[in-house]
Amino acid sequence: MSAPTLSRAPLRMRAALVILVAVGLVLAVRLFYWQIIRWDELSHKADAQRESGAPLLARRGDIWTSDRVLLAKDIFLYTLSIAPKSVREPDKLAADLAPLIGQPRDVILAKLKSNVPSVVLARDLQQSVAEGVIDYRNRRKLLNLEIEPKPVRVYPNGMFAAPNVGIVNVERHAAYGVEQFKDAELRGTDGTIHRSSNALNDPIPFDLPTKVVPATDGATITLTINSGMQRIVEQELFSAIRASGAESGSIILMDPKTGAILALAVWPTADLNRFFDPANQGRYANQTVNSQYEPGSVFKIITVAAGLDAGIITPASCYDDHGSIYIGGRTIKNHDDIAPGRVCLTDVLRQSLNVEAVKIAVSLGAERFYQYIVKFGFGALTHVELAGEVAGEVKQVGDGRWREIDLGTNAFGQGIATTPMQIVAAVAAVANQGKLMRPYIVQSVQPANVPRPIETTPVVVRQVIQPETARTLSRLLADAIVGESSNKAIVPGYGIAGKTGTAQIPIAGVLDPRWTIASFVGYLPADDPRFVILVKLDKPQTSEWGSQVASPVFAAVAKQLVMQAGLPPDAIRLASK
């Protein structure tokens, strides 16, 4: 009965052997796959699991004025912490740290004896204090005493040039100004320090770093702003706001030959270091690029420029002005309903006659008139390096919104939306032989580890009007100011070319009957301009007219500029040529 069982035993043994060999082959193949083919991949994963990475924070780049006044920089504040269970002599450590970090010994000791995994001994330590603690740690070989740096953005000059600079908040997010526009270059790239870690991903004490990826600091940016000129425009703007009771205002100073912004002031503004104060919300926006407005009669410079360049008017052109003109189903009148009678082109500018501006626009025709407006840069971004720029608004024939009346009102700067930056750039084109320059406020960018800064090259956007047209219009504007005995923009000894503006403010489809925007834009010397200045005051209370509240501010700024720049009076300058 047992013989069959014995005969089957070798078969089972052979089967078992086959199974064992098969399993062994499978295991060998799998071991070959994991240990040979995927060795590198698994090795990297293992290393990654054994390592913990900590960031090496990049330092954000500085911002300077063109004459080396520091506007923004990063400093590091330090947090001091320790694991209480790792402290062998808490009484001695508390006594040693107390004078170093400026805290009572008993307070430190209580923290060192607390029953928590980790405790913060001090926050926001200055670098000099942190260096003292590090020196103490190194001498005592207390590697469990952790000092963690935190970059903080500071603005050494408070509210000085604030709308140009912008802010960086505690979360390291940039807002407004150059800080936001040039954030990619300024912020740099964080690095990483890798250390061996345990199963809980905590760094192993006393172990050296396994790998260090260094941080790359942000670029240093130098602005075109001159600190002396910036102080002039800020002081004069503040004085004008206080004297006129205006709600807000701005001044832009530009070099017409390059487009460089030499100074730019906005009110209201606030200390850049106090951005967290709720009272300062909304006070960092730069209204020269962020807000659009109807410019009023300063826009007549553009209308007259177009008429002269197209050849439909000449400096000798004269008109019969009866005080009103009918267009597009509406009657347009001059300010104060004046009807001066026979006037020539200089009178049109001097008296700021709406009726004659409308006649010039009508003579040009809508298509050609708006072609010139677009060529001057209206309705498009200037691309100045300030965050949040808007393009303004220019209606076009056939866009479904334009009406014939717009041709009339646009001729004297109503019904068209512009930014102050667009206005100063357009008028600078007249001052610059008809060449429109791209405004810029960044003079250079110096990336980290690069020997030389990258300088901004002035950019000619286009030739808007012919050079002769620009020279003719400059003479007309200068003559108009000289012939107006009450004009408050005059700077004795210097030829001034410019124009006042008094624009009503549209509210819900109608014009505000009380408030205006008063402005003056001009340049000097009129024959060879060095400076273009725009003064804009919103809702002045003492007078609604640009000639009364904005023109004197232009003169006050210009008088100081020529002194600071060492620009001699016209008679001396021209005699030396």
What is the C-level CATH assignment of the domain at 227-575?
Alpha Beta
Helix content: 25-40%
What CATH calls the topology of the domain at 227-575 is Beta-lactamase
Secondary-structure-derived class: alpha+beta
Q: Number of helical runs?
A: 20
Global shape: elongated
CATH homology superfamily name of the domain at 227-575: DD-peptidase/beta-lactamase superfamily
Largest sheet: 7 strands, mixed
What distance separates the N and C termini? 137 Å
CATH architecture verdict of the domain at 227-575? 3-Layer(aba) Sandwich
Unreliable segments of 5+ consecutive residues:
204-208
Number of strands: 23
- Rg value: 36 Å
How much β-strand is present in the residues? 15-25%
Average residue pLDDT: 90
Task: Describe the overall structure.
- The chain is α+β, with helices and mostly antiparallel strands and 577 residues long.
- Strands 2, 3, 4, 5, 10, 18 and 19 form a seven-stranded mixed sheet that branches. Strands 12-11-23-22-21 form a five-stranded antiparallel sheet, sandwiched between helices.
- Helix 3 crosses helix 4, helix 11 packs across helix 13 and helix 11 crosses helix 17.
- The longest helix has 35 residues.
